[in-house]
Amino acid sequence: MLRPDGRLSLDIDPDERSPQDACGVFGVWAPGEDVSQLTYYGLFALQHRGQESAGIAVSNGRRIMVFKDMGLVAQVFDEATLSSLKGRLAVGHTRYSTTGASIWHNAQPTFRATANGGLALAHNGNLTNTHELEAWLAELNPAEHVPEKKTMDSTNDTSLVTALLVSVSDDLEKAALDVLPRLKGAFCLTFMTETTLFAARDPQGIRPLVLGRLDSGWVVASETAALDIVGASFVREVEPGEFIAIDEAGLRAQRFAPADPKGCLFEYVYLARPDTTIAGQGVHATRVEIGRQLAREHPVDADLVIPVPESGTPSAIGYAQESRLPYGQGLVKNSYVGRTFIQPSQTIRQLGIRLKLNPLREVIAGKRLVVVDDSIVRGNTQRALVRMLREAGAKEVHVRISSPPVQWPCFYGIDFATRAELIAPGLTVEEVCRSIGADTLGYVSLEGLTASTHIPAGQLCRACFDGSYPVAIPPGQAELLHLEDS
Fold first, then answer.
1. Annotated binding residue at 311?
2. Cα→Cα distances 233→200, 213, 257, Å
3. Is 439 marked within a binding site?
4. Is 233 annotated in some ligand binding site?
5. Are 474 and 128 in contact (CB under 8 A)?
6. Are strands 357-359 and 281-282 parallel, antiparallel or unpaired?
7. Strand order in the sheet with 242-247
8. Backbone angles phi, psi at 400, to 5 degrees
9. Strands of 23-29's sheet, edge to edge?
10. Which range is most confident: 109-123, 236-250, 342-356?
11. CA distance 188 to 202
12. Could you count the other beta carbons within 10 Å of the beta carbon of residue 98?
């Protein structure tokens, strides 16, 4: 399976990759600070949320300058580029595509000229009612939908929001309060004019967004880790259904919709950085507790607990603590294997997971291993991993997963497979175990995972595990669910 742009990534086989979140967003209003440098470091802290493209928009109070390109943050920006982006406020973005092809036109922030200046916008999430919004845009501004423009402009839902904001009203704050209530799905937005920074979060708060304070200004970011990196103090989360504006007059906040919290449960399992805090819960501590719960639910007589680095590490620590089994590093991760645009040869492609992980033979040979990973999506990674561990001399391989079986696709910004591509639907745990070649397999229960977060189940989106979607899925997407086979 090829990427949307027809190229393969160095993940070797797209079926081997881990689940990917849509994007990371960052915004800063800080006159007197080097806002492009702050945004650069903020995006570095959010690189895990998107590795396909990166961009920064900066305003000096009179005009907005945008620089963006394909690649990692460090590949897109150098010192000369950042030095040319002088200003008092900025928004930044790291992207992993879930809608729209992986091409330069879809890199963010987007930019549009308005009657009063410019608008630059960055988006994390995925809208579920784009057909409805496109129809509205066609009524407001038919020129936006001519075929020639569709071939020239970006194809993602971010450009659609940008076009709506500039079409509804010349007053951007008024336009936002008209547009935001009509957006459905997951969205965290940071956007700006020449003088004002804005932020908004969907009424369900599916993706995280936080507000921080600098000595001379304000920061909004997808995760608290980005605040830490730039030296901002955490103030609070941007509330679900909240719209924020920051300018010379200070910070103004108002609601565009009632809050109906449904934070993504998978953020706690995998997506967020372990040094991030979401809804008052430290992600690292939560993952350690998930590991303890996993050990209580699925104990095993073994010699050593090892993680699949890096995302399996906290839960492996918790599993070892609860089970009183030794913890060790049995796999070494190559930190320099990321999502690049190198097209691997067939020989390299066959190496698969070995480019990313290599066993420490002297640690695992002759051992009965408990191998802790964050999730099983298609099963290809675990199948290759179990085979590699056995070849390295492992006596037994007991796989433990710190999330329940992934049963349903995500429509809110995680690039899961369609239901037909997932391994769990239609198979028992024993059948999945045989498929990946493990001696035993245990998933943490949905109830156990939820309890580990200390967040009430009614305030979490758990759709990828239980199929209960808090926001209506996009029209025409039922084939991804294969409801007729359910």
1. yes
2. 20, 5, 27
3. no
4. no
5. yes
6. unpaired
7. 110-114, 117-127, 185-192, 197-201, 242-247, 250-255
8. -125, 130
9. 64-70, 53-59, 89-95, 23-29, 217-221, 210-214, 233-237
10. 236-250
11. 6
12. 22
CA torsion sign, 111 to 113 to 119 to 124? negative
Report how far residue 188's alpha carbon sits from residue 192's, in angstroms, rounded to the nearest whole number: 14
| pLDDT range class, residue 115, cuts 50, 70, 90 | confident
CB 219 within 8 A of CB 27: yes
- Chain segment 374-424, per-residue pLDDT in tens: 999 889 889 999 999 999 999 999 999 999 999 999 999 887 767 888 999
Q: Pull the structure tokens for residue 234.
A: 């955490």
Give the chain's mean pLDDT: 88
What pLDDT score does 1 carry?
26
Cα distance between the two ends of the chain: 25
Q: What are the φ and ψ backbone dihedral angles of 382, each rounded to 5 degrees? A: -65, -35
Q: How far apart are CA 33 and CA 291, in angstroms?
A: 42
Give me 377's structure tokens.
């999506």
Q: Distance (Å, rounded) from C-alpha 94 to C-alpha 338?
A: 14
Please report the domains of the chain, with CATH numbers, ordered by start residue: 14-261 (3.60.20.10), 280-485 (3.40.50.2020)
pLDDT at 421: 84
Predicted confidence band of residue 475 (pLDDT cuts 50, 70, 90): confident
Token readout for 333 is 């991760």
Residue 145: predicted pLDDT: 55
Dihedral through CA 96, CA 97, CA 101, CA 104, nearest 10? -40
Q: Is the peptide bond before 223 cis (omega within 30 degrees of 0)?
A: no
Tokens of 279: 């809804």
From residue 144, how far is each of 85, 183, 317 by CA, in Å? 29, 18, 53
- What tokens does 265 get? 């449960």
In the three-class reduction of DSSP (H, G, I as helix; E, B as strand; rest coil), residue 307 is classed as strand
Single-letter residue type at 275: D
3-class DSSP state for residue 438?
coil
Q: Which two tokens stand for residue 359?
A: 């066993």
How crowded is residue 279: how many other Cβ atoms within 10 Å of its Cβ?
16
Cα distances from 130 to residues 94, 112, 182, 331, 465, in angstroms, run: 22, 19, 10, 43, 25
Annotated binding residue 264: yes
Q: What is the pLDDT of residue 417?
A: 64
pTM value > 0.85: yes
Question: What would the mean pLDDT of 474-482 be, rounded to a whole number?
Answer: 67
- pLDDT score recorded for residue 354: 78
User: Residues with catalytic annotation?
Assistant: 23
pLDDT at 481: 67
> Per the annotation, does 433 bind a ligand?
no
3-state SS class at 321: helix
Report the pLDDT value the prediction gives residue 154, as an integer from 0 to 100. 44
Q: Alpha-carbon torsion 382, 387, 319, 45, what sign?
A: negative
